[in-house]
């Protein structure tokens, strides 16, 4: 299976954060997303607010067109061969190989849906993608259950897509997908106490796994589901 976002979260989030931070810096260095009593005002909230989406869409057609072009290319490739890029429904197939690609590609697909909301085909694919990932009992690789990196990639992509697509999800999907994020984040949190990446800050897995835990936790906190 091919991917245009291999190395994500690194590649995807370098593009995403560059896109968003450049916009925020240009407009107002003091801009912050409203945050009160452990809740942001709405979704999206991880990297930008709902009020900033329209400006991001404008930038995608102007100053940030070169970044948007890479996202467009990746998503058009996925849409041209959906069965090649969608995660399998069968858990045996999902866990049979190194599967970080699923979280990687979902992040790019979700960002495309933010920038081009008129593309219903992409949005439907993103929701189908999330349903397939949510159907998995685990995002770990069967032959490497001690390695949380694939799970981390899946969690970052899934939590990001949840934030970006929240207002397009049904109530049932919102609740089901949030439970998936809670379960994966909880697993990562508990595992951090017994894996080197949880306390060895030069560990090569540390930034990937902690980024995933942070992303999932922020979504849970915003929904008021963080455990005490």
From TrEMBL:
GO CC annotation terms, alphabetical: membrane
Gene: DSE
Entry superkingdom: Eukaryota
InterPro entries given in the database record: Chondroitin_lyas, Dermatan-Sulfate_Isomerase
Main subcellular location of this protein, as a coarse class: membrane
Official protein name in the record: Dermatan sulfate epimerase
Keyword Isomerase annotated: yes
Membrane topology of the entry: Multi-pass membrane protein
Localisation: Membrane
Gene3D superfamilies per the UniProt record, alphabetical: Chondroitin AC/alginate lyase
Family: Belongs to the dermatan-sulfate isomerase family.
Annotated signal sequence range: 1-22
Annotated source species: Oryctolagus cuniculus
GO molecular function, one term: chondroitin-glucuronate 5-epimerase activity
Keywords linked to the UniProt accession: Glycoprotein, Isomerase, Membrane, Signal, Transmembrane, Transmembrane helix
């Amino acid at each position: 299976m091919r991917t245009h976002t291999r190395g994500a979260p690194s590649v995807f989030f370098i593009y995403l954060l560059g896109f968003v931070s450049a916009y925020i810096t240009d407009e107002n260095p003091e801009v912050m997303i409203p945050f009160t009593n452990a809740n942001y005002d709405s979704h999206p909230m991880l990297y930008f607010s709902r009020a900033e989406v329209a400006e991001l869409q404008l930038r995608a057609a102007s100053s940030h067109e070169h970044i948007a072009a890479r996202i467009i290319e990746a998503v058009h490739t996925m849409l041209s061969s959906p069965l090649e890029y969608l995660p399998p429904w069968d858990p045996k197939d999902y866990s049979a190989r190194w599967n970080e690609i699923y979280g990687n590609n979902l992040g790019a697909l979700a960002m495309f849906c933010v920038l081009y909301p008129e593309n219903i085909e992409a949005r439907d694919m993103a929701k189908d993608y999330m349903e397939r990932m949510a159907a998995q009992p685990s995002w770990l690789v069967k032959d490497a259950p001690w390695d949380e990196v694939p799970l981390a990639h899946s969690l970052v992509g899934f939590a990001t897509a949840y934030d970006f697509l929240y207002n397009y999800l049904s109530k049932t999907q919102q609740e089901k997908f949030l439970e998936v994020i809670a379960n994966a984040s909880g697993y990562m949190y508990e595992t951090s106490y017994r894996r080197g990446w949880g306390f060895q800050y030069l560990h090569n897995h540390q930034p990937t796994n902690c980024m995933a835990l942070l992303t999932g936790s922020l979504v849970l906190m915003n929904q008021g589901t963080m455990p005490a």
